[in-house]
Amino acid sequence: MSGSRLAYLSLGSNVGDRLGNLRHALQLLDATLGVSVTRVAGLYETEPVGVQDQPWFLNSAVEISTDLSPRLLLAAVKAVERAVGRTPTYRWGPREIDVDILLYGDETVSEADLTIPHPRMQERLFVLLPLRELLPGWVDRQGHSLSEMIEKVRGTAELRPYPERL
């Protein structure tokens, strides 16, 4: 892809065939015009954040190469969620699939429905651990490394590596 950027997405599922939902989302992302999945982190099984009374999630992160703008990438991500079967619930509720844009090159976006870097990623171990697999040396604009962020939130939620791969 010419003029492409690397972007990083978080994927999660806790309804139905969690692994199948993640694999389906990954296939759809890779089939999206202007998007190519380049690397995939390992899987982690994580307890829910916010609303505890729901099944555990399977989470991962993916690196994509894209020539879509952040706004068009958001539209593509939402289309993938719909295609996998995501149905509206409540905030932090159960979901067939959740795909969030974590990083888009070194750009910052601050709009009503899109904030990049993702505004809560530094609070979520299930985002930070797989992202560190893909970007071990990444440092935010305040100079904090992913490893430092992980140490700050370690122990806030139970998380375990999952034996299968996407």
Question: What features would you highlight for this structure?
Answer:
28% helix; Alpha-Beta Plaits; 27% strand; 166 residues; alpha+beta; two-stranded antiparallel sheet; single chain
Report what the structure shows:
By secondary structure, this protein is an alpha+beta fold. The chain has a single domain, classed as 7,8-Dihydro-6-hydroxymethylpterin-pyrophosphokinase HPPK (Alpha-Beta Plaits, 2-Layer Sandwich). Helix content is 28%, strand content 27%. It has four helices and eight strands; from the N terminus they run E-H-E-E-E-H-E-E-E-H-H-E. The chain has helices at residues 18-31, 70-84, 125-134, 146-153, and strands at residues 5-13, 35-40, 44-46, 57-66, 98-104, 109-111, 114-116, 159-161. The strands form two sheets. Strands 1, 2, 3, 4, 5 and 8 form a six-stranded antiparallel sheet that branches. A hairpin with a 2-residue loop joins strand 6 and strand 7 (114-116). Helix 1 (18-31) packs across helix 2 and helix 3 (125-134) runs antiparallel to helix 4 (146-153). It starts with a strand and ends in a 5-residue tail after the last strand.
